[in-house]
Amino acid sequence: MTLKQQNNWKRRYFTILSGQAVSLVTSGILQMTLIFYLTERTGSALVLSLATFFGFLPQAALGPFIGVWVDRWNRKFVMIGSDLFIALSGVALALVALRLEPPVWVVLGILFLRSLGGAFYSPAMSAVTPLLVPEDQLTKCAGYSSSIQSISFLVSPALSAVLYSRWHLSAIVGLDVLGAVIASAFVAGIAIPKLAKAETEAKTSFFAELKDGYCAIRTQKGLFTLVLIATLYMLVFMPINALFPLMSMGYFGGTTTHAAIAETAFSAGMLAGGLVLGAWGGFKRRTRTLGYSVLLMGTGLTASGLLPASGFAGFAALCVAMGFAAPFHGVQTALFQERVAPECLGRVFSLSMSMMSLAMPVGLMLSGAFAEVIGVHTWFLISGLLVMGISLLMMSLPSIRSLDEKPAAEKELAALPEAAD
């Protein structure tokens, strides 16, 4: 990164982040509207689990291949195209809604298409970030990014709850399209540094590039172990994430307003956690920051499962605590951005996300089935205990703790001034 790029990184990065904030809010409104629709129409934990399953299926099935395309193509155009594709999938839903009440299978199909666009956008954004941001600012930028997301999560449920009862679905889709256009314009106006020609030359084989992405992460034991632990975490937590509305509206006997309050409380905690991470940067030993955040999340889930049916206020308070823990998971992204070559980042992020997403089908089916049989609150308790165990495992593994050490190349570079003296 040149000196000029270092001086301009905040303007470029925060311009993209601002556009993303607008798109996240409008997209979040539509996303929550669809969740409210499914919850109100079916009241089924299994259907909500299926909705989350379809939301993660593209990343799980196509992630490794998407990563190759992200590294081959212009990442700026990938981000713009992904945002617009997500918006257009909403337009398809609006056309159906103008004629009839959308069937559940149509809503699930739209969630799949929106997820497909996100499967391209997320690795492209993660791969672009280290091209704009100095390495020593990556962890803090993970906090800034999480703060933007949490603002969206904070605003979207409340707005969705209001608009869901007042607007036609096609109008909410129109709002989402406007947000996508604004975000795309912000990205289009920013010059994103390109990789050197030697780094972007396409290999003769698509699968050779796919293998390179796997090798880039597999050869680093600490990163690969961290992905495996994160996969285990996804197996347990993400299905629970889909059941939050049912916990509010089913176990606690609330309405869409109560579900929005819980989501808003979680997002308020995320905003606070993101701001803290952005200003502080976490512990010097970053894997400890990651481990403690997972432990806090597990504690919140466990306590939620122990609440009586009249304890919604306590659940809302615990949502704040769990939300506060969520942004600190961004430390994992910063570790990847620091230790993987920029030309491989698209493949590495897509592959790691795919590995984690592969746990989703099993986790979602199990969580939906168990929640129907033993009750959603009991499943919260069990999942919380499992997440706490995962955090202890993460902090005890030497290969993960070794990620707190500087890479060998960085150590050699740091030693050069001393050698010159």
How would you concisely characterize the structure shown here?
The chain is built from 19 helices and no strands. It starts with a helix and ends with a helix.
Question: Any descriptors?
Answer:
about 425 residues, mainly alpha, Growth Hormone, Chain: A, 19 helices, about 0% strand, globular, disordered C terminus
Description of the molecule:
With 421 residues, this protein is mainly α. It has a single domain (8-189, 207-408), classed as MFS general substrate transporter like domains (Growth Hormone, Chain: A), CATH 1.20.1250. It is built from 19 helices and no strands. The longest helix is centred in the N-terminal third of the chain and has 40 residues, at 3-42. It is globular and about 50 Å long. The two termini are 25 Å apart. Mean pLDDT is 80; it is low at 197-202 and 408-421.
Major beta sheet, specifics? Answer: none
CATH classification, class level: Mainly Alpha
State mean pLDDT (0 to 100 scale).
80
User: What class do helices, strands and sheet pairing give?
Assistant: mainly alpha
- Give the CA-CA distance, first to last residue: 25 Å
Compute the CA-based radius of gyration.
21 Å
Q: Which spans have pLDDT < 50 for at least 5 consecutive residues?
A: 197-202, 408-421
The CATH topology: Growth Hormone, Chain: A
Spell the H/E element sequence.
HHHHHHHHHHHHHHHHHHH
Give the domain tally: 1
Strand percentage lies at under 5%
Number of strands: 0
Helix content: over 70%
Shape: globular
